[in-house]
Amino acid sequence: MIRAEAISKSFGKLNVLREISVQLEAGRVVAVIGPNGSGKTTFIKTLLGMVVPDRGRVLFTNQAITKQHTYRSQIGYMPQIGHYPANLKIKQLFEMMIDIRNDATMQLDEDLVAAFQLKALFEKPLGTLSGGTKQKVSAALAFLFNPSVLILDEPTAGLDPLSSEVLKDKIQKESQKGKLILITSHVMSDLDELATDVLYLQDGSVQFYKTIAELKLETGESKLGRVIAQLMSKIPQMS
Ligand SMILES: Nc1ncnc2c1ncn2[C@@H]1O[C@H](COP(=O)(O)OP(=O)(O)OP(=O)(O)O)[C@@H](O)[C@H]1O
């Protein structure tokens, strides 16, 4: 569904992505894991066209994404930190997003709007929201247009335990419909519940991209946290 072909990206002298080639298939939930600064967010932003790679290319359903934006309507993106205009009310933000979509026939998915009880907060300006509430707004927007791909950057960070469970249930529900879901997270227990595959980045390179079942078999560990700890201890650190 999405293919990255040898994508590389530098910021100044810093090589943030080095020749990343991966195939991401519909129906999979891919956990993008790696130490802080290993390039996870930059990688997912290249899939979204928000970062343009220096070399290599990204294909969405076999079409190169360069200089075309229509494919983006098929991706729901939940950023690590949502930046919204402070004076805009939640209701206005939703209305604006629906307006931009400009598709009256579209069936909206308001599951998370309801589950997070966002309608009760609709008149609140975004600048006054707590970090967790802002996360809920970002999550509800990512799922709103029923996209075939979801890219979720640290989705449960800042959410209270109940809201975190609500979001995980929703991710599972959408995955069962055959969607491709990419999640970056440092919370291994969440990924253990949700992910089918692990894409592990270190210093901008793919260290491994395997199914969780394979990784558990290979390491003899039953918990993803322990699997990753074991594998990380074997990866030579770059200076
Ligand atoms: N626009 C930019 N300009 C300069 N450097 C950048 C830019 N975006 C990212 N970087 C650098 O690229 C490296 C990778 O950043 P990235 O955010 O992709 O890492 P990450 O794996 O998502 O980290 P974390 O786990 O901390 O979220 C970091 O050293 C970061 O400072």
TrEMBL record:
<dbReference type="Pfam" id="PF00005">
    <property type="entry name" value="ABC_tran"/>
</dbReference>
<keyword id="KW-0547">Nucleotide-binding</keyword>
<dbReference type="InterPro" id="IPR051782">
    <property type="entry name" value="ABC_Transporter_VariousFunc"/>
</dbReference>
<dbReference type="InterPro" id="IPR003439">
    <property type="entry name" value="ABC_transporter-like_ATP-bd"/>
</dbReference>
<dbReference type="InterPro" id="IPR003593">
    <property type="entry name" value="AAA+_ATPase"/>
</dbReference>
<feature type="domain" description="ABC transporter">
    <location>
        <begin position="2"/>
        <end position="228"/>
    </location>
</feature>
<dbReference type="InterPro" id="IPR027417">
    <property type="entry name" value="P-loop_NTPase"/>
</dbReference>
<keyword id="KW-0067">ATP-binding</keyword>
<keyword id="KW-0813">Transport</keyword>
<protein>
    <submittedName>
        <fullName>Cu-processing system ATP-binding protein</fullName>
    </submittedName>
</protein>
<dbReference type="GO" id="GO:0005524">
    <property type="term" value="F:ATP binding"/>
</dbReference>
<dbReference type="GO" id="GO:0016887">
    <property type="term" value="F:ATP hydrolysis activity"/>
</dbReference>
